[in-house]
Design goal:
With 239 residues, the chain is of the alpha+beta class. The chain is built from 9 helices and 4 strands, in the order ααααααβααββαβ. It has 2 domains: 142 residues, no CATH class; 76 residues, 2-Layer Sandwich (Alpha-Beta Plaits), CATH 3.30.70.380.
């Protein structure tokens, strides 16, 4: 095995003070491959309807270009100042004229750049190991849905007469049918004769909303009860 490694090193002319053409070509292909893994991980873990193909291509381009920039300015292994300048120049390229969509997008951009920096610094083993491990961690965290917020499944509107103590009247019903509820607003309507309550709620059994509505109507004197699907991304307080 060591003999094979030595043959590869000799063929690519590794270990020279400055990178040979063969090593530069190898570094570019390795950087592109690692950033292809980063882009595939981003595509696999993306949640939403607006996936940007241009952004995915940007991950591939930036990561590969960063490795070239660092290799160009890193004349020899001991040139820490040149390496530092290369890192500074590489990170300066992320100043886009258009804003990046989410903090997660920025995170993936840094992962791609880190892979490119490691390759450009000729730390090929570190580049492969860190990129594979980071992508694996991201896939694991996303697959297990760690740190997911508690989201409202429905919005609830209830109209009650002013003689009903809604804090007491609806408590038992809501505990039976809901995981969580959050009172959003209390509004006086119909010239002050009725009160409208608005909640964000999470149903225990989302397939049976009719039972919950019927139970509420029995408690509020058959006044209006409206249950609708919540807007995407609406979160419930866990306090």
């Amino acid at each position: 095995m060591e003999a094979v490694v030595e043959v590869i090193k000799e063929a690519l002319q590794f270990g020279h003070a400055s990178a040979s053409f063969q090593e530069i070509l190898f570094a570019m292909l390795l950087s592109f491959g690692l950033n292809l893994l980063v882009a595939a991980t981003y595509r696999r873990t993306f949640r939403g309807a607006d996936l940007s193909q241009d952004y995915v291509h940007t991950l591939l381009i930036v990561g590969t270009v960063v490795s070239v920039v660092v290799m160009v300015v890193r004349v020899d292994k001991e040139s820490s100042q040149a390496t530092a300048f290369g890192i500074f120049a590489a990170f300066s390229v992320i100043r886009f004229r258009t804003s990046v969509g989410t903090p997660k997008d920025i995170g993936f951009l840094f992962v791609a750049m880190a892979a490119g920096l490691a390759v450009g610094a000729r730390a090929y083993g570190m580049a492969v190991a860190t990129t594979v491990i980071l992508c694996g961690i991201i896939l694991l965290v996303t697959g297990l849905d760690f740190f997911a917020p508690v989201r409202a499944s429905h919005r609830l509107r209830i109209r009650v007469t002013n003689d009903i103590d809604y804090d007491v009247a609806f408590k038992g019903c809501m505990e039976r049918h809901l995981h969580r509820s959050e009172l959003v607003s209390v509004e006086s309507i119909q010239a002050g004769m009725m009160t409208e309550l608005r909640y964000n709620v999470q149903l225990r059994d989302a397939s049976k909303p009719g039972e919950f509505v019927a139970a509420l109507q029995q408690l509020n004197g058959n006044n209006r009860v409206m249950l609708s699907m919540a807007a995407a991304g609406r979160e419930l307080s866990t306090e």
